[in-house]
Write a structure and sequence with these properties.
Rossmann fold; six-stranded mixed β-sheet; four-stranded parallel β-sheet; alpha/beta; globular
Length: 621
Protein backbone atom coordinates (compact mmCIF):
# COMPACT_ATOMS: atom_id res chain seq x y z
CA UNK A 1 0.00 0.00 0.00
CA UNK A 2 1.28 3.49 -0.93
CA UNK A 3 2.70 5.37 2.05
CA UNK A 4 1.93 9.08 2.51
CA UNK A 5 4.50 11.55 3.73
CA UNK A 6 1.97 13.10 6.11
CA UNK A 7 0.11 11.21 8.81
CA UNK A 8 -3.68 11.20 8.99
CA UNK A 9 -3.39 13.29 12.13
CA UNK A 10 -1.55 16.05 10.27
CA UNK A 11 -3.80 15.87 7.20
CA UNK A 12 -6.83 16.39 9.42
CA UNK A 13 -5.30 19.59 10.84
CA UNK A 14 -4.81 21.39 7.51
CA UNK A 15 -7.07 23.06 4.98
CA UNK A 16 -7.68 20.96 1.85
CA UNK A 17 -5.52 17.92 2.69
CA UNK A 18 -6.12 16.58 -0.83
CA UNK A 19 -3.47 19.08 -1.97
CA UNK A 20 -0.76 16.84 -0.52
CA UNK A 21 -1.67 13.21 -1.18
CA UNK A 22 -0.93 12.89 -4.92
CA UNK A 23 -2.20 9.85 -6.85
CA UNK A 24 -4.35 12.00 -9.15
CA UNK A 25 -5.72 10.66 -12.42
CA UNK A 26 -2.98 10.72 -15.11
CA UNK A 27 -0.16 11.32 -12.62
CA UNK A 28 2.91 9.31 -13.62
CA UNK A 29 4.38 6.65 -11.37
CA UNK A 30 7.73 5.00 -12.14
CA UNK A 31 10.13 2.67 -10.38
CA UNK A 32 12.77 4.99 -8.89
CA UNK A 33 15.39 2.25 -9.10
CA UNK A 34 14.99 2.10 -12.89
CA UNK A 35 15.52 5.85 -13.37
CA UNK A 36 18.92 7.52 -13.52
CA UNK A 37 17.54 11.00 -12.82
CA UNK A 38 14.81 12.16 -10.47
CA UNK A 39 13.49 15.65 -11.13
CA UNK A 40 11.11 17.52 -8.81
CA UNK A 41 9.31 20.23 -10.74
CA UNK A 42 8.02 22.94 -8.38
CA UNK A 43 5.54 25.76 -8.59
CA UNK A 44 6.15 28.16 -5.67
CA UNK A 45 2.49 28.78 -4.95
CA UNK A 46 -0.47 26.80 -3.70
CA UNK A 47 -1.60 23.58 -5.43
CA UNK A 48 -4.72 25.07 -7.07
CA UNK A 49 -2.67 27.69 -8.89
CA UNK A 50 0.25 25.46 -9.78
CA UNK A 51 -2.02 22.78 -11.21
CA UNK A 52 -3.39 25.40 -13.64
CA UNK A 53 0.03 26.20 -15.07
CA UNK A 54 0.57 24.88 -18.60
CA UNK A 55 4.35 25.20 -18.55
CA UNK A 56 4.72 22.67 -15.74
CA UNK A 57 2.33 20.29 -17.50
CA UNK A 58 4.44 20.47 -20.68
CA UNK A 59 7.74 19.81 -18.90
CA UNK A 60 6.16 17.04 -16.81
CA UNK A 61 5.14 15.32 -20.02
CA UNK A 62 8.46 15.98 -21.77
CA UNK A 63 10.70 14.79 -18.95
CA UNK A 64 8.66 11.67 -18.24
CA UNK A 65 8.83 10.58 -21.87
CA UNK A 66 12.44 9.71 -21.10
CA UNK A 67 12.61 6.24 -19.52
CA UNK A 68 15.68 7.31 -17.52
CA UNK A 69 13.95 10.33 -15.89
CA UNK A 70 11.13 10.44 -13.36
CA UNK A 71 9.65 13.91 -13.01
CA UNK A 72 7.36 14.55 -10.04
CA UNK A 73 5.41 17.63 -8.90
CA UNK A 74 5.77 19.89 -5.86
CA UNK A 75 3.74 22.92 -4.79
CA UNK A 76 4.18 25.34 -1.90
CA UNK A 77 2.52 24.05 1.27
CA UNK A 78 -0.14 26.47 2.51
CA UNK A 79 0.98 28.34 5.68
CA UNK A 80 -0.97 25.99 7.96
CA UNK A 81 0.99 22.93 6.78
CA UNK A 82 4.23 24.87 6.36
CA UNK A 83 4.27 25.74 10.06
CA UNK A 84 3.51 22.14 11.07
CA UNK A 85 6.30 20.81 8.85
CA UNK A 86 8.80 23.20 10.40
CA UNK A 87 7.69 22.38 13.92
CA UNK A 88 7.72 18.62 13.35
CA UNK A 89 10.87 18.56 11.19
CA UNK A 90 9.05 17.05 8.19
CA UNK A 91 10.83 17.41 4.83
CA UNK A 92 8.99 18.76 1.80
CA UNK A 93 8.12 15.90 -0.55
CA UNK A 94 7.04 15.19 -4.12
CA UNK A 95 3.42 14.23 -4.73
CA UNK A 96 3.94 11.12 -6.84
CA UNK A 97 6.38 9.16 -4.64
CA UNK A 98 5.92 11.16 -1.41
CA UNK A 99 9.74 11.06 -1.13
CA UNK A 100 11.71 13.97 0.42
CA UNK A 101 13.13 16.49 -2.06
CA UNK A 102 16.63 15.96 -0.70
CA UNK A 103 16.64 12.55 -2.42
CA UNK A 104 16.20 14.07 -5.90
CA UNK A 105 18.87 14.92 -8.48
CA UNK A 106 17.21 18.16 -9.59
CA UNK A 107 14.70 20.57 -8.10
CA UNK A 108 13.33 22.92 -10.75
CA UNK A 109 11.04 25.90 -10.12
CA UNK A 110 9.01 27.92 -12.58
CA UNK A 111 8.86 31.61 -11.63
CA UNK A 112 5.82 33.43 -12.99
CA UNK A 113 5.57 36.39 -10.60
CA UNK A 114 8.07 38.29 -8.49
CA UNK A 115 5.82 38.14 -5.45
CA UNK A 116 6.51 34.40 -5.15
CA UNK A 117 10.20 34.93 -4.31
CA UNK A 118 9.90 34.18 -0.59
CA UNK A 119 8.11 30.95 -1.53
CA UNK A 120 11.30 29.92 -3.34
CA UNK A 121 13.03 29.99 0.02
CA UNK A 122 10.13 28.21 1.70
CA UNK A 123 10.57 25.27 -0.71
CA UNK A 124 14.36 25.12 -0.31
CA UNK A 125 14.11 25.50 3.47
CA UNK A 126 11.44 22.82 3.88
CA UNK A 127 13.56 20.55 1.69
CA UNK A 128 16.25 20.96 4.41
CA UNK A 129 18.77 22.36 1.94
CA UNK A 130 20.99 25.47 2.25
CA UNK A 131 19.28 28.58 0.89
CA UNK A 132 22.36 29.76 -1.01
CA UNK A 133 23.87 27.81 -3.89
CA UNK A 134 27.40 28.37 -2.58
CA UNK A 135 26.65 26.37 0.58
CA UNK A 136 25.36 23.19 -1.09
CA UNK A 137 27.36 19.96 -1.12
CA UNK A 138 28.04 17.50 -3.93
CA UNK A 139 25.38 15.05 -2.75
CA UNK A 140 22.61 17.66 -2.76
CA UNK A 141 20.14 18.30 -5.61
CA UNK A 142 20.89 20.80 -8.36
CA UNK A 143 18.34 23.61 -7.89
CA UNK A 144 17.10 25.29 -11.07
CA UNK A 145 14.70 28.02 -12.14
CA UNK A 146 12.89 28.97 -15.34
CA UNK A 147 9.95 31.13 -16.42
CA UNK A 148 9.40 34.81 -17.25
CA UNK A 149 10.90 36.13 -14.01
CA UNK A 150 14.27 34.71 -15.02
CA UNK A 151 14.64 37.43 -17.65
CA UNK A 152 16.08 39.35 -14.74
CA UNK A 153 17.38 36.51 -12.59
CA UNK A 154 19.76 38.60 -10.49
CA UNK A 155 17.62 39.25 -7.36
CA UNK A 156 17.24 35.48 -6.90
CA UNK A 157 20.47 34.33 -8.59
CA UNK A 158 22.28 33.41 -5.36
CA UNK A 159 19.59 30.84 -4.48
CA UNK A 160 19.91 28.82 -7.70
CA UNK A 161 22.59 26.59 -9.20
CA UNK A 162 21.26 26.93 -12.76
CA UNK A 163 18.75 29.33 -14.26
CA UNK A 164 17.29 28.40 -17.64
CA UNK A 165 16.63 31.23 -20.10
CA UNK A 166 14.04 30.52 -22.75
CA UNK A 167 11.49 27.92 -23.72
CA UNK A 168 11.97 24.69 -21.81
CA UNK A 169 11.52 22.23 -24.68
CA UNK A 170 14.95 22.85 -26.20
CA UNK A 171 17.96 22.16 -23.92
CA UNK A 172 16.98 19.90 -21.04
CA UNK A 173 17.89 16.68 -22.83
CA UNK A 174 21.46 17.93 -23.20
CA UNK A 175 21.54 18.81 -19.50
CA UNK A 176 20.26 15.38 -18.45
CA UNK A 177 22.72 13.59 -20.74
CA UNK A 178 25.59 15.63 -19.31
CA UNK A 179 24.50 14.89 -15.76
CA UNK A 180 24.26 11.14 -16.40
CA UNK A 181 27.70 11.06 -18.00
CA UNK A 182 29.39 13.03 -15.25
CA UNK A 183 27.61 11.15 -12.46
CA UNK A 184 28.86 7.90 -13.94
CA UNK A 185 32.46 9.14 -13.74
CA UNK A 186 34.63 8.83 -10.65
CA UNK A 187 35.32 12.53 -10.20
CA UNK A 188 31.85 14.13 -10.25
CA UNK A 189 31.54 17.34 -8.33
CA UNK A 190 28.86 20.01 -8.28
CA UNK A 191 31.44 22.62 -9.29
CA UNK A 192 32.63 20.68 -12.36
CA UNK A 193 29.09 19.85 -13.46
CA UNK A 194 27.89 23.45 -13.22
CA UNK A 195 30.84 24.71 -15.25
CA UNK A 196 30.09 22.22 -18.04
CA UNK A 197 26.36 22.91 -17.82
CA UNK A 198 27.01 26.62 -18.40
CA UNK A 199 28.12 25.75 -21.95
CA UNK A 200 24.70 24.31 -22.85
CA UNK A 201 22.62 26.97 -24.66
CA UNK A 202 20.25 28.77 -22.32
CA UNK A 203 21.86 27.52 -19.09
CA UNK A 204 22.94 30.41 -16.84
CA UNK A 205 25.07 29.43 -13.83
CA UNK A 206 25.10 32.51 -11.55
CA UNK A 207 28.11 31.37 -9.51
CA UNK A 208 30.28 31.66 -12.65
CA UNK A 209 29.63 35.38 -13.10
CA UNK A 210 30.51 38.39 -11.02
CA UNK A 211 29.29 41.98 -10.84
CA UNK A 212 31.14 45.20 -10.03
CA UNK A 213 29.51 48.53 -9.23
CA UNK A 214 30.08 52.24 -9.77
CA UNK A 215 30.23 54.63 -6.81
CA UNK A 216 26.59 55.64 -7.40
CA UNK A 217 25.39 52.03 -7.04
CA UNK A 218 24.78 51.39 -10.74
CA UNK A 219 26.27 48.33 -12.38
CA UNK A 220 29.79 48.85 -13.73
CA UNK A 221 30.51 45.43 -15.18
CA UNK A 222 29.02 41.95 -15.29
CA UNK A 223 31.14 39.15 -16.69
CA UNK A 224 32.02 35.45 -16.57
CA UNK A 225 34.89 34.52 -14.27
CA UNK A 226 36.25 31.87 -16.70
CA UNK A 227 37.11 32.25 -20.37
CA UNK A 228 35.23 29.08 -21.36
CA UNK A 229 31.97 30.29 -19.82
CA UNK A 230 29.74 32.20 -22.29
CA UNK A 231 29.76 35.98 -21.89
CA UNK A 232 26.12 36.06 -23.04
CA UNK A 233 23.35 33.59 -22.27
CA UNK A 234 21.08 33.11 -25.29
CA UNK A 235 17.32 32.76 -24.95
CA UNK A 236 16.20 29.40 -26.33
CA UNK A 237 13.36 29.43 -28.84
CA UNK A 238 11.29 26.50 -30.15
CA UNK A 239 11.26 26.62 -33.94
CA UNK A 240 8.36 24.23 -34.60
CA UNK A 241 5.63 23.98 -31.95
CA UNK A 242 4.16 20.95 -33.71
CA UNK A 243 7.22 18.89 -32.81
CA UNK A 244 7.26 19.54 -29.06
CA UNK A 245 5.86 17.54 -26.16
CA UNK A 246 2.32 18.37 -25.04
CA UNK A 247 0.27 16.94 -22.13
CA UNK A 248 -2.29 14.80 -23.95
CA UNK A 249 -3.14 13.21 -20.58
CA UNK A 250 -3.14 16.19 -18.21
CA UNK A 251 -3.08 15.41 -14.51
CA UNK A 252 -6.59 15.92 -13.07
CA UNK A 253 -6.41 17.73 -9.70
CA UNK A 254 -8.07 16.45 -6.53
CA UNK A 255 -8.93 20.03 -5.52
CA UNK A 256 -10.62 22.37 -7.99
CA UNK A 257 -7.89 24.36 -9.70
CA UNK A 258 -8.09 28.08 -10.47
CA UNK A 259 -8.37 27.13 -14.13
CA UNK A 260 -10.14 23.80 -13.98
CA UNK A 261 -10.08 23.03 -17.69
CA UNK A 262 -8.07 21.80 -20.64
CA UNK A 263 -5.63 24.40 -21.94
CA UNK A 264 -4.90 24.40 -25.65
CA UNK A 265 -1.89 26.57 -26.53
CA UNK A 266 -2.61 27.65 -30.09
CA UNK A 267 0.49 29.81 -30.60
CA UNK A 268 3.39 31.57 -28.88
CA UNK A 269 4.56 35.11 -29.27
CA UNK A 270 2.67 38.19 -30.36
CA UNK A 271 2.75 40.53 -33.33
CA UNK A 272 1.38 43.59 -31.55
CA UNK A 273 4.46 45.25 -30.02
CA UNK A 274 2.81 46.85 -26.98
CA UNK A 275 5.65 48.73 -25.28
CA UNK A 276 4.63 47.82 -21.73
CA UNK A 277 4.28 44.07 -22.36
CA UNK A 278 7.19 41.86 -21.37
CA UNK A 279 5.56 38.67 -22.64
CA UNK A 280 5.05 40.26 -26.05
CA UNK A 281 8.80 40.81 -26.31
CA UNK A 282 10.36 37.76 -24.65
CA UNK A 283 8.19 35.24 -26.52
CA UNK A 284 8.83 36.67 -29.99
CA UNK A 285 8.42 35.76 -32.79
CA UNK A 286 4.82 34.63 -33.19
CA UNK A 287 4.70 30.90 -33.99
CA UNK A 288 1.54 28.88 -34.57
CA UNK A 289 0.57 25.26 -34.02
CA UNK A 290 -1.06 23.68 -37.05
CA UNK A 291 -4.81 23.17 -37.19
CA UNK A 292 -4.45 19.39 -37.45
CA UNK A 293 -2.17 19.32 -34.39
CA UNK A 294 -4.62 21.37 -32.33
CA UNK A 295 -7.58 19.22 -33.34
CA UNK A 296 -5.68 16.14 -32.20
CA UNK A 297 -4.60 17.76 -28.91
CA UNK A 298 -8.11 19.01 -28.12
CA UNK A 299 -9.74 15.64 -28.76
CA UNK A 300 -7.17 13.66 -26.76
CA UNK A 301 -6.98 16.04 -23.80
CA UNK A 302 -10.74 16.25 -23.37
CA UNK A 303 -11.11 12.49 -23.68
CA UNK A 304 -8.30 11.75 -21.21
CA UNK A 305 -9.17 14.33 -18.55
CA UNK A 306 -12.94 14.50 -18.32
CA UNK A 307 -12.79 18.29 -18.12
CA UNK A 308 -15.91 20.20 -19.11
CA UNK A 309 -14.17 23.28 -20.49
CA UNK A 310 -11.39 23.98 -22.98
CA UNK A 311 -9.50 27.27 -23.14
CA UNK A 312 -7.53 28.59 -26.10
CA UNK A 313 -4.24 29.96 -24.78
CA UNK A 314 -2.10 32.65 -26.41
CA UNK A 315 -1.19 36.30 -25.98
CA UNK A 316 -3.64 37.38 -28.71
CA UNK A 317 -5.95 34.59 -29.84
CA UNK A 318 -7.54 36.76 -32.55
CA UNK A 319 -4.22 36.67 -34.41
CA UNK A 320 -4.21 32.89 -34.86
CA UNK A 321 -4.60 32.46 -38.62
CA UNK A 322 -6.84 29.37 -38.46
CA UNK A 323 -9.08 30.48 -35.60
CA UNK A 324 -12.39 30.22 -37.55
CA UNK A 325 -11.62 26.67 -38.66
CA UNK A 326 -10.46 25.64 -35.18
CA UNK A 327 -13.59 27.06 -33.59
CA UNK A 328 -15.85 25.32 -36.08
CA UNK A 329 -14.23 22.03 -35.07
CA UNK A 330 -14.45 22.76 -31.34
CA UNK A 331 -18.05 23.97 -31.48
CA UNK A 332 -19.12 20.84 -33.34
CA UNK A 333 -17.27 18.56 -30.92
CA UNK A 334 -17.93 20.46 -27.71
CA UNK A 335 -21.63 21.08 -28.25
CA UNK A 336 -22.25 17.36 -28.49
CA UNK A 337 -20.27 16.76 -25.31
CA UNK A 338 -21.66 19.84 -23.48
CA UNK A 339 -18.14 21.28 -23.10
CA UNK A 340 -17.62 25.01 -22.68
CA UNK A 341 -15.13 26.92 -24.82
CA UNK A 342 -13.16 29.77 -23.25
CA UNK A 343 -11.60 32.45 -25.44
CA UNK A 344 -9.36 34.86 -23.51
CA UNK A 345 -7.13 37.42 -25.23
CA UNK A 346 -9.48 38.46 -28.03
CA UNK A 347 -9.32 41.92 -29.56
CA UNK A 348 -12.17 44.41 -29.86
CA UNK A 349 -13.53 43.71 -33.34
CA UNK A 350 -16.60 42.28 -35.05
CA UNK A 351 -14.92 38.94 -35.74
CA UNK A 352 -14.08 38.42 -32.07
CA UNK A 353 -17.61 39.34 -31.00
CA UNK A 354 -19.11 36.94 -33.53
CA UNK A 355 -16.83 34.23 -32.18
CA UNK A 356 -17.77 34.92 -28.58
CA UNK A 357 -21.48 34.85 -29.34
CA UNK A 358 -21.03 31.33 -30.68
CA UNK A 359 -19.37 30.01 -27.53
CA UNK A 360 -20.76 32.09 -24.64
CA UNK A 361 -24.09 32.33 -22.92
CA UNK A 362 -24.42 36.07 -23.51
CA UNK A 363 -27.10 36.46 -20.84
CA UNK A 364 -24.79 35.22 -18.10
CA UNK A 365 -21.37 36.42 -19.20
CA UNK A 366 -19.50 39.70 -19.33
CA UNK A 367 -17.18 40.73 -22.13
CA UNK A 368 -13.68 42.04 -21.45
CA UNK A 369 -11.73 44.68 -23.35
CA UNK A 370 -8.23 45.93 -22.50
CA UNK A 371 -7.78 49.51 -23.78
CA UNK A 372 -4.88 49.84 -21.24
CA UNK A 373 -5.15 53.66 -21.38
CA UNK A 374 -8.11 56.02 -21.37
CA UNK A 375 -6.87 58.54 -23.93
CA UNK A 376 -5.82 57.97 -27.51
CA UNK A 377 -2.59 59.85 -26.83
CA UNK A 378 -1.56 57.32 -24.18
CA UNK A 379 -2.63 54.37 -26.32
CA UNK A 380 -0.27 55.68 -28.99
CA UNK A 381 2.51 56.11 -26.42
CA UNK A 382 2.21 52.46 -25.38
CA UNK A 383 1.72 51.31 -28.99
CA UNK A 384 -1.54 49.57 -28.15
CA UNK A 385 -2.71 49.68 -31.76
CA UNK A 386 -6.28 50.40 -30.70
CA UNK A 387 -8.20 53.52 -31.68
CA UNK A 388 -11.06 55.23 -29.90
CA UNK A 389 -13.27 54.24 -32.82
CA UNK A 390 -12.27 50.57 -32.37
CA UNK A 391 -13.31 50.67 -28.71
CA UNK A 392 -16.63 52.43 -29.32
CA UNK A 393 -17.58 50.27 -32.31
CA UNK A 394 -16.63 47.12 -30.42
CA UNK A 395 -18.70 48.16 -27.41
CA UNK A 396 -21.70 49.02 -29.61
CA UNK A 397 -21.53 45.63 -31.32
CA UNK A 398 -21.31 43.95 -27.91
CA UNK A 399 -24.48 45.69 -26.75
CA UNK A 400 -26.25 44.81 -30.00
CA UNK A 401 -25.08 41.23 -29.50
CA UNK A 402 -26.85 41.05 -26.16
CA UNK A 403 -24.11 41.78 -23.62
CA UNK A 404 -24.92 44.23 -20.85
CA UNK A 405 -21.72 43.83 -18.79
CA UNK A 406 -18.39 45.12 -20.05
CA UNK A 407 -15.08 44.95 -18.19
CA UNK A 408 -12.32 47.40 -19.11
CA UNK A 409 -8.68 46.97 -18.05
CA UNK A 410 -6.35 49.95 -17.74
CA UNK A 411 -2.95 50.83 -16.31
CA UNK A 412 -2.07 53.87 -14.23
CA UNK A 413 1.41 55.35 -13.93
CA UNK A 414 2.45 54.83 -17.54
CA UNK A 415 5.40 56.90 -18.83
CA UNK A 416 4.27 60.38 -19.83
CA UNK A 417 0.83 60.04 -18.24
CA UNK A 418 -0.90 63.35 -17.47
CA UNK A 419 -3.99 64.08 -15.38
CA UNK A 420 -6.16 64.40 -18.46
CA UNK A 421 -5.15 60.87 -19.46
CA UNK A 422 -6.19 59.63 -16.03
CA UNK A 423 -9.55 61.42 -16.23
CA UNK A 424 -10.06 59.89 -19.68
CA UNK A 425 -10.54 56.47 -18.06
CA UNK A 426 -13.92 57.16 -16.40
CA UNK A 427 -14.88 59.38 -19.32
CA UNK A 428 -14.40 56.43 -21.67
CA UNK A 429 -16.38 54.22 -19.32
CA UNK A 430 -19.18 56.76 -19.26
CA UNK A 431 -19.17 57.07 -23.05
CA UNK A 432 -19.54 53.30 -23.36
CA UNK A 433 -22.39 53.26 -20.82
CA UNK A 434 -24.12 56.10 -22.72
CA UNK A 435 -23.73 54.05 -25.89
CA UNK A 436 -25.81 51.27 -24.35
CA UNK A 437 -28.72 53.60 -23.57
CA UNK A 438 -28.46 55.27 -26.99
CA UNK A 439 -28.21 51.97 -28.88
CA UNK A 440 -30.66 49.64 -27.14
CA UNK A 441 -34.32 50.78 -27.07
CA UNK A 442 -35.76 51.00 -23.56
CA UNK A 443 -38.27 48.22 -24.16
CA UNK A 444 -35.47 45.85 -25.26
CA UNK A 445 -33.13 46.46 -22.33
CA UNK A 446 -32.64 43.81 -19.69
CA UNK A 447 -31.95 46.28 -16.91
CA UNK A 448 -29.10 48.73 -16.51
CA UNK A 449 -25.77 48.06 -18.19
CA UNK A 450 -22.65 47.68 -16.05
CA UNK A 451 -19.22 48.95 -17.07
CA UNK A 452 -16.48 47.84 -14.68
CA UNK A 453 -13.15 49.64 -14.93
CA UNK A 454 -10.10 47.99 -13.35
CA UNK A 455 -6.70 49.60 -13.08
CA UNK A 456 -3.38 48.03 -12.25
CA UNK A 457 -0.30 50.14 -11.61
CA UNK A 458 2.38 49.99 -14.30
CA UNK A 459 5.67 48.17 -13.66
CA UNK A 460 8.45 48.73 -16.25
CA UNK A 461 9.73 45.19 -16.86
CA UNK A 462 13.08 44.11 -18.34
CA UNK A 463 13.28 43.64 -22.10
CA UNK A 464 10.52 46.11 -22.85
CA UNK A 465 10.89 49.58 -24.37
CA UNK A 466 9.81 50.97 -20.99
CA UNK A 467 12.70 49.34 -19.10
CA UNK A 468 14.31 52.80 -18.87
CA UNK A 469 11.22 54.30 -17.19
CA UNK A 470 10.86 55.10 -13.51
CA UNK A 471 8.03 54.36 -11.13
CA UNK A 472 6.22 56.31 -8.42
CA UNK A 473 5.79 56.02 -4.64
CA UNK A 474 2.68 54.14 -3.56
CA UNK A 475 1.06 57.42 -2.45
CA UNK A 476 1.25 58.76 -5.98
CA UNK A 477 -0.32 55.65 -7.45
CA UNK A 478 -3.17 55.92 -4.96
CA UNK A 479 -3.59 59.62 -5.78
CA UNK A 480 -4.06 58.69 -9.43
CA UNK A 481 -6.56 55.99 -8.51
CA UNK A 482 -8.52 58.56 -6.48
CA UNK A 483 -8.63 60.85 -9.52
CA UNK A 484 -10.29 58.05 -11.48
CA UNK A 485 -12.68 57.26 -8.64
CA UNK A 486 -13.66 60.88 -7.95
CA UNK A 487 -14.06 61.74 -11.62
CA UNK A 488 -16.22 58.64 -12.13
CA UNK A 489 -18.71 60.08 -9.62
CA UNK A 490 -19.09 63.15 -11.85
CA UNK A 491 -20.15 61.16 -14.92
CA UNK A 492 -23.73 61.12 -16.21
CA UNK A 493 -24.03 57.33 -16.04
CA UNK A 494 -22.23 56.88 -12.73
CA UNK A 495 -24.80 54.31 -11.56
CA UNK A 496 -23.69 52.08 -14.44
CA UNK A 497 -19.97 52.46 -13.61
CA UNK A 498 -17.83 50.45 -11.21
CA UNK A 499 -14.16 50.96 -10.40
CA UNK A 500 -11.52 48.80 -8.69
CA UNK A 501 -7.75 49.11 -8.43
CA UNK A 502 -4.71 47.05 -7.51
CA UNK A 503 -2.64 47.31 -4.32
CA UNK A 504 -0.07 50.08 -4.72
CA UNK A 505 2.42 48.79 -2.13
CA UNK A 506 2.55 45.38 -3.82
CA UNK A 507 3.22 47.09 -7.17
CA UNK A 508 6.17 49.04 -5.76
CA UNK A 509 7.75 45.91 -4.31
CA UNK A 510 7.10 44.02 -7.55
CA UNK A 511 8.96 46.74 -9.42
CA UNK A 512 11.96 46.57 -7.09
CA UNK A 513 12.20 42.78 -7.41
CA UNK A 514 11.71 42.92 -11.20
CA UNK A 515 14.43 45.53 -11.75
CA UNK A 516 16.94 44.78 -8.99
CA UNK A 517 20.39 43.21 -8.84
CA UNK A 518 22.10 40.54 -6.74
CA UNK A 519 22.15 42.71 -3.66
CA UNK A 520 18.45 41.96 -3.24
CA UNK A 521 19.03 38.29 -2.40
CA UNK A 522 19.92 39.37 1.14
CA UNK A 523 16.65 41.32 1.40
CA UNK A 524 14.56 38.39 0.15
CA UNK A 525 16.26 36.06 2.62
CA UNK A 526 15.71 38.51 5.49
CA UNK A 527 12.03 38.95 4.53
CA UNK A 528 11.61 35.17 4.62
CA UNK A 529 13.29 35.01 8.03
CA UNK A 530 10.81 37.63 9.25
CA UNK A 531 7.91 35.41 8.15
CA UNK A 532 7.09 36.56 4.62
CA UNK A 533 5.57 33.88 2.37
CA UNK A 534 2.67 33.93 -0.10
CA UNK A 535 3.24 37.65 -0.70
CA UNK A 536 0.96 37.49 -3.76
CA UNK A 537 -1.95 36.75 -1.42
CA UNK A 538 -3.41 39.89 0.12
CA UNK A 539 -4.08 38.27 3.50
CA UNK A 540 -0.41 37.33 3.87
CA UNK A 541 1.39 40.30 2.32
CA UNK A 542 3.09 42.30 5.08
CA UNK A 543 4.70 45.54 3.89
CA UNK A 544 6.10 46.31 7.34
CA UNK A 545 8.18 43.14 7.30
CA UNK A 546 9.53 43.90 3.84
CA UNK A 547 10.43 47.44 4.87
CA UNK A 548 12.22 46.03 7.91
CA UNK A 549 14.11 43.60 5.65
CA UNK A 550 15.35 46.46 3.43
CA UNK A 551 16.34 48.44 6.52
CA UNK A 552 18.12 45.48 8.16
CA UNK A 553 20.15 44.91 4.98
CA UNK A 554 20.95 48.60 4.48
CA UNK A 555 19.42 48.65 0.99
CA UNK A 556 17.28 51.43 -0.45
CA UNK A 557 14.62 49.82 -2.62
CA UNK A 558 13.71 53.15 -4.18
CA UNK A 559 17.10 53.21 -5.94
CA UNK A 560 15.88 50.52 -8.34
CA UNK A 561 12.63 52.18 -9.40
CA UNK A 562 12.36 55.89 -8.56
CA UNK A 563 14.47 57.17 -11.44
CA UNK A 564 14.50 57.20 -15.20
CA UNK A 565 17.56 55.20 -16.20
CA UNK A 566 20.24 56.63 -18.43
CA UNK A 567 20.34 55.25 -21.96
CA UNK A 568 23.95 54.13 -21.43
CA UNK A 569 23.31 52.40 -18.07
CA UNK A 570 24.19 48.71 -17.84
CA UNK A 571 21.15 46.74 -16.72
CA UNK A 572 21.50 43.68 -14.45
CA UNK A 573 19.85 41.63 -17.22
CA UNK A 574 21.98 42.86 -20.13
CA UNK A 575 24.04 39.64 -20.16
CA UNK A 576 20.99 37.83 -21.59
CA UNK A 577 20.64 37.75 -25.37
CA UNK A 578 16.86 37.86 -25.57
CA UNK A 579 16.95 37.97 -29.41
CA UNK A 580 15.10 41.29 -29.18
CA UNK A 581 17.91 43.84 -29.48
CA UNK A 582 18.55 46.63 -27.01
CA UNK A 583 18.86 49.01 -29.97
CA UNK A 584 15.29 48.15 -31.02
CA UNK A 585 13.97 48.61 -27.47
CA UNK A 586 15.73 51.97 -27.19
CA UNK A 587 14.30 53.04 -30.54
CA UNK A 588 10.82 52.13 -29.30
CA UNK A 589 11.45 54.04 -26.04
CA UNK A 590 12.25 57.14 -28.08
CA UNK A 591 9.22 56.65 -30.34
CA UNK A 592 7.06 56.34 -27.22
CA UNK A 593 8.21 59.75 -26.01
CA UNK A 594 6.94 61.20 -29.29
CA UNK A 595 3.71 59.18 -29.32
CA UNK A 596 4.69 57.49 -32.59
CA UNK A 597 2.99 54.18 -33.37
CA UNK A 598 5.02 51.24 -34.73
CA UNK A 599 3.12 48.90 -37.09
CA UNK A 600 2.60 45.33 -35.92
CA UNK A 601 4.64 42.42 -37.29
CA UNK A 602 1.98 41.36 -39.79
CA UNK A 603 2.10 44.80 -41.42
CA UNK A 604 5.86 45.27 -41.63
CA UNK A 605 9.07 44.15 -39.94
CA UNK A 606 10.22 46.62 -37.30
CA UNK A 607 13.71 45.13 -37.04
CA UNK A 608 13.42 43.84 -33.47
CA UNK A 609 16.26 41.34 -33.93
CA UNK A 610 14.30 38.08 -34.18
CA UNK A 611 14.62 37.61 -37.94
CA UNK A 612 17.82 35.48 -37.69
CA UNK A 613 15.76 32.89 -35.78
CA UNK A 614 14.11 32.14 -39.15
CA UNK A 615 10.84 30.92 -37.72
CA UNK A 616 7.24 32.01 -37.34
CA UNK A 617 6.07 35.43 -38.49
CA UNK A 618 9.68 36.40 -39.30
CA UNK A 619 9.54 34.08 -42.33
CA UNK A 620 6.76 36.10 -43.99
CA UNK A 621 8.67 39.35 -44.61
Amino acid sequence: MRKLALSDDILLQVEKPARYIGNEVNSIIKDPDSCDIRYAICFPDVYEIGMSHLGIQILYEQFNRRPDVWCERVYSPWPDLSSIMKKEGISLFALESQDPLGEFDFIGMTLQYEMCYTNILQIIDLAKLPLFSRDRKDDMPIIMAGGPCTYNPEPIADFFDIIYIGEGETSYDSLFDLYKTMRASDDYSRRKFLREASKIPGMYVPSLYEATYNADGTLKDFSAIYSDVPAKVERQVVEDLNETAYPMKPVVPHVQAIQDRVTLEIMRGCIRGCRFCQAGMIYRPKRERSLDTLKKYAYEMLKNSGHEEISLSSLSSSDYSKLPELLDFLIEHCNDEKINISLPSLRIDNFSLDVMKKVQDVRKSSITFAPEAGSQRMRDVINKGLTHEDIINGSKEAFLGGWTKIKLYFMLGLPGEEEEDIRAIPELGDEIAMLYYDTIPKEERSGRCQVTMSTSFFVPKPFTPFQWAGMFPKEEYLRRARIVNDHMKEQLNKKSLRYQWHQADVTVLEGILARGDRKLSAVIKRAYELGCIFDAWGEYFDLDKWEQAFSDCGIDGDFYIMRTRDKAELFPWDFIDCKVSKAFLLREWERASKGVVTPNCSMSCSGCGCRPLSTGICMTH
